[in-house]
Structure formats: structure tokens, C-alpha cells
Amino acid sequence: MRKIISLLMMSLLLILAACGNETSEPAKTNSTTKKEETVTESTESKEVNLYTSRHYDVDDELYANFEKETGIKVNVIKGEADELLERIKREGDATQADLLYTADVGRLSRAKEEGVLQSGSSELLDKQIPKKFQDNDQMWYGLTKRARVIIYNKDKVKPEELSTYEALTEDKWKGRVLIRSSENVYNQSLLASFIDINGEEKAKEWAEGIVANLARNPEGGDRDQAKAIAAGIGDVAIMNTYYYGQMLNSEDPEEVKVAEGLSVFFPNQETTGTHVNISGAGIVKHSKNKDNAIKLLEFLSAPEAQGTFATANFEYPVNPDVEPSDLLKSWGNFKEQDIQLSVLGDNNTKSIMIFNEVGWK
Ligand code: FE2
């Protein structure tokens, strides 16, 4: 009997040790945090736990700099956006997460709707991040900006032939348009912006028109659309700016070659503006280190970090005091859609419905 008990003890210890080995697991906060949960201050805490779906080296460098500057350790858990959201929901008030950092307002709004975020604000955040890129209730903040543009084959398309997203539904583009699946939140947000600007009927007409002009059934990510242009499958693609920037600067010579045959066009400059979206972070409702979470948001939206995002990752700064990188500047200034970005979340369900109705896979 004693043998069995000690065996059980042994295996329990082994399990505990294995859990402890997961280095990405955030360190446990001390048990005195109960009080701090309801009060704002957690002066003792020297850590912040970030759940992120971003996977860029530059992010890790920024967290290390934050740690150096403030002494607050950033514990990072990486994962797929929807999984991280599910995880936070599942963990409930026991969650270690202080911030959920992911791409697209559509996703951040989903997190808000699911009730896993809380409001938080500071004067500095308001100074560094325009209202347009903040949640109305200040539950999430945009940290980097990207434009969803038209990328075209320089040999087959003249920029004069391009004008608007809507014009891509004209007959002359039949069989030439590339864009990824409607399951992707970037496209859901693009259509959500059209619902806000032009109304549901027009948005549906647009989606229908694009489906009619597709070069192939939607497949792959944004980069794959650029590659499909190079492979001669289509001539124009709708994709995010940073992918094009990343491809131009890729370590993979094939990607560079593909990107060099392409050029970027900012649609709707004479009309409603180019669609922009953000990657950003939401403050988790059951955060145990809210003050530190706000400090990290302030750090990431400050000029230095914004400059780093811009140069290393080809994203646009959200902070209006920071210039884009030289490459992005070389593409020129452009007019953005004039909308409050949170509407992209409000219109997300309608957007998915329209995509289903028009048969956009
Ligand atoms: Fe992306």
C-alpha cells in the first residue's frame, strides 16, 4: 500500500515538474493580488502577462526594452488568436492574462463582446493613440496600422487603370482578381467598412462583383495572392501593406523576386479612402496587473517603439508624431477611410452573412 501511495506521489510530482517546465507559462502572481484585482494599484507587481498572436522578433525586442526601462517583466504566451481568446474565456477570473494582443479590430471587438476585456485609460495613451484607433470604451488600443491595398503586376497593369475597390468589380477585371477567403477577418473588416460607408446593399454588390471576377477560388494567405500574380494566375490582389514590405525585404530570394514584379496602389483616393486596420491589444477583464498593462501599452505606442514597429515590420505607426519607415514613405501618403474603427467589429456579423450570401468561399 505504502508503495502505491509513494508511486502516486512520485507521478504527481512529475506532473507538477512538467508544468513548471513550460517556460512560456507566466509566473504565478502572489496570493495578495485578490485585493489588487478590485483596486487599481498593484505597486508590488513587477510583471505583465501578454497573450499574443503576433510572431515577430521585433516584438520580443520591444518587450525586452520595456523590461530594461521599467523593471517589469513581460511574460509572453504566443498562440493563434481565436485559441488565445478561448483560453482567456476558459480561464475566467483565474486567468494570468493582462493583455490580449492580436491583429484586426474584428477580433478585438469579438473579445470585447465575449466579455473578457475591461476599460483602462491614461492621458499618455490618449495623446499617443488617436481616438479613431481606440475602442469607444477604451477596452482595446491600436498599436500598429496597416492598409489593405491593391497590389498589381507591373508588366500587365498600369496604375492609371486602377482607381477604387469598387472598380475591381468591372468586367475588364474578370478572371484577374486575387483575394483570400472570406473566413479571414481582414476581409470581414474590409467589407464591414464598406457596410459603414456605402450601406449594406452596395457592400453586397461589391462582394458579388469580386466573386464574379476572381482568378481562382480563394486560397492561402495574403502573401499567396502576391505569389499567384507572379505565377500568372491573376493580375491584381487585395492584400495588407506589411506583407508586401516583408516580401520585398525577405531572406527568401524567391519572395523578393515576386515582390519586385509588383507595385502598390492605394485605392479610393478620390473617394472614400483606403481601408486601414490595426493590430492592437485589449486589457483583460481579470487582469491582475492592470497598471503594468497600461504601462506596456504606453511604451508600445510611444515614439521609440512605434518607430521600431515601422522599420522592422513595415507597419504604419498609430502615433501621429511618428513617421513611417522610408520604404512606406516611398509608397507615398494616402487618404484613409474616415471611420471609427470599432464599427468594423459592429458590422462583422453582417459582413459574414453577406459573404455567405454571395458565395465568397
Ligand atoms: Fe497578418
Provide a descriptive summary of the structure in words.
- By secondary structure, the protein is α/β, with parallel strands linked by helices.
- It folds into two domains: 44-145 and 278-326, Periplasmic binding protein-like II (D-Maltodextrin-Binding Protein, domain 2), CATH 3.40.190; 146-275 and 345-358, D-Maltodextrin-Binding Protein, domain 2 (3-Layer(aba) Sandwich).
- Helices cover 45% and strands 15% of the residues.
- It contains 16 helices and nine strands.
- Strands 1, 2, 3, 4, 5, 6, 7, 8 and 9 form a nine-stranded mixed beta sheet that branches.
- Helix 3 (57-70) links the parallel strand 1 (47-52) and strand 2 (73-78).
- Helix 7 (185-198) crosses helix 8 (200-213), helix 7 crosses helix 16 (348-358) and helix 8 packs across helix 16 (348-358).
- The termini are far apart.
- The model is unreliable at 10-42 (pLDDT under 50).
- Bound molecules: fe (ii) ion (FE2).
- Fe (ii) ion binds next to loops.
